[in-house]
User: What shape does this take?
Amino acid sequence: MEYAVPVWQSISDTWSDKLETIQKRALKIIFPFAETYLEALEVAGIDNLADRRTIICKKYMSRMKISPNHPLHALLPKNTGENCNYELRDKTEDVLLYQDFRFCRTKKTENFFTFKYY
Assistant: This one.
């Protein structure tokens, strides 16, 4: 249920709840003595799926940003002030685009994982 999470992380709440239901059912089978889902999570020593997906995406983004050899590193937006030999009309601070939500013009762009997990 966590395979290729950075690709499909921005799913709707409905689909997220359906995935969580699968984990709830599995934990109920594995730990029948647990009274609640939260208690079963504690006994198993795991987080809920939504939290685990967020952690996986943050780790993936940090590896992608740190390593210039990462296959997707070149796809990250560059720093707006990087390698610019002339004055820009609208000079912005030296902020990476994926850390500045002003550049999100559509909901699809806002939900893209490079914007969410910086």
Remarks:
- The radius of gyration is 19 Å.
- DSSP finds six helices and no strands in the chain.
- The CA atoms of residues 5 and 44 lie 21 Å apart.
- Residues 5-116 form one domain.
